[in-house]
Design a protein that fits this description.
- The protein has a 5-stranded antiparallel beta sheet with strand order 2-1-5-4-3, with helices on both faces. Strands 7-9-10-12-11 form a 5-stranded mixed beta sheet. A two-stranded antiparallel sheet has the order 6-8.
- The protein is an alpha+beta fold.
- It folds into 3 domains: 154 residues, PAS domain (Beta-Lactamase, 2-Layer Sandwich); 81 residues; 166 residues, 2-Layer Sandwich (Heat Shock Protein 90), CATH 3.30.565.
- It has 14 helices and 12 strands.
- A hairpin with a 5-residue loop joins β1 and β2.
- The chain is elongated.
């Protein structure tokens, strides 16, 4: 099958699912009751079913419980005909589509193998839906196709197949734009921390210079105490390692690349964010407290993106307390378990709090209450959290201050959800 022409958005395909399933059910009634008299209500339903199936621009086939094709629409017939006479004969009413896919899979078609497994799972009731995509080349051009298999009330399954090339291309472009926006946000974050980074990096560099000069002076005496010289050199190595770690952390935020998907320790995320902002907190006169809960499950996602979320919220907290007396500036970051399958990161400041009238807009893009703000930090934070299957909430504390809470599913829960999404 080569795919229906001109049906691109995958949400359009999914909007046809209920219509196709209903039409398939009515078609099944027609198959099981061929003697229904013309003009009866059931006969009218059968005509509606046929018209609906043929009006849908995606390829549709109705299978019985054994995988035999009971009905196809015009788009399916046209696609099968384009694929060749032999393929058309195998794809029309009366053919067993499971056998068709099995033969293609034995011939080396990975796509047919995936379709075979999905159809079999739906027919057996092991999956509520199967969705798969694959790429093919026609006439030197690359195309992306999507196959969906759903059960229907009369037993068996409905297969829907369509060309989603434009949709896949748009999704890739959207992903590229999102990565660019995330990178821009990280660059802006590092820029805002330039003073703290300079101060932090200056400490080990000053130590390196002082130790190197001391070692030189000792060596110039002609009879240096080698034990003292050794300790001085070891201090120099430790200072170099500290400077290298600062550069590494900064580089990790600036590096452009595709998102990683791995198991992440949330405690390490908040600890690393605390390290990166410790000097910024010092320069701003903020007391920073990082509390990590014990025995938290890992989450599944990109550690740099999650760290960016925490850093964004921490910097917002610093800004919110800028006008307070230094003794009152206190930012708390802590982790906790949230129910059986979730973990959370909380960032709480002691500022004056967010105006309730503005609360509903703070996650909108380009909405900001800061004089020089761009209105991207909280928006990007929300989008990152959502892409990780989580949610972010904000609450104004009763006395004063604001609490941001990020809730994420554990790695186990994320894997279960992804498994469900790829099957049903």
């Amino acid at each position: 099958m080569t795919g229906s022409r001109g049906v691109q958005p995958t949400h359009t395909i999914r909007s046809f699912v209920s219509a196709a399933a209903r039409a398939a059910f009515l078609s099944r009634r027609k198959i099981n009751n061929p003697s229904v008299p013309t003009g009866s209500p059931q006969s009218d339903d059968n005509g509606v079913a046929s018209n609906v199936l043929n009006a849908l621009p995606i390829e549709i086939a109705v299978l019985d419980a054994h995988g035999t094709i009971e009905a196809v629409n015009d788009a399916w017939r046209m696609a099968a005909s384009r694929a060749g006479v032999r393929a058309a004969a195998n794809a029309f009413v009366g053919a067993n589509y499971i056998d068709v896919c099995a033969r293609a899979a034995r011939a080396g078609s990975r796509e047919a193998g995936d379709a075979l497994a999905g159809i079999d799972a739906v027919l057996k009731g092991d999956a509520a839906r199967h969705v798969s995509r694959y790429d093919m080349t026609h006439g030197g051009a690359e195309y992306t196709y999507e196959l969906q298999v759903v059960p229907h009330a009369g037993g068996g399954a409905v297969i829907m197949h369509a060309d989603v090339t434009a949709c896949a291309h748009a999704e890739r472009e959207a992903a590229d734009r999102t990565r660019e926006l995330l990178h821009l946000s990280r660059v802006l974050t590092v820029g805002s921390l330039s003073g703290a980074l300079t101060h932090e990096l200056n400490q080990p560099l000053t130590a390196i210079l002082a130790n190197a000069q001391a070692a030189l002076r000792m060596l110039e005496t002609g009879s240096p105490d080698m034990h003292v010289v050794g300790e001085t050199v070891r201090d120099t190595v430790r200072a170099v390692q500290r400077a290298s770690e600062i550069v590494r952390r900064t580089r990790s935020l600036l590096t452009r690349g595709t998102p990683r998907h791995e198991e992440v320790d949330i405690n390490e995320v908040v600890q690393e964010a605390g390290r990166m902002l410790s000097n910024e907190a010092l320069l701003r006169g903020v007391r920073l407290t990082v509390l990590r809960a014990l025995d938290l499950p890992d989450v599944y996602g990109d550690p740099i993106q999650l760290q960016q979320c925490v850093i964004n919220l921490m910097i917002n907290g610093f800004d919110a307390m800028a006008e307070l007396p230094q003794s009152e500036r206190h930012l708390v970051v802590h982790t906790a378990r949230a129910g059986r399958n979730n973990v959370e990161m909380v960032v709480e400041d002691r500022g004056k709090g967010i105006d309730p009238a503005r609360m509903q807009h703070i996650f909108d893009p380009f909405y900001t209450t800061k004089r020089n703000g761009m209105g991207l930090g909280l928006y990007i934070t929300r989008e990152i959290v959502r892409s990780h299957g989580g949610r972010i909430s904000v609450k104004r504390n009763p006395d004063r201050g604001t609490r941001f809470r990020i809730t994420l599913p554990s790695a186990t829960a994320s894997n279960e959800r992804m498994s469900d999404a790829s099957g049903p």
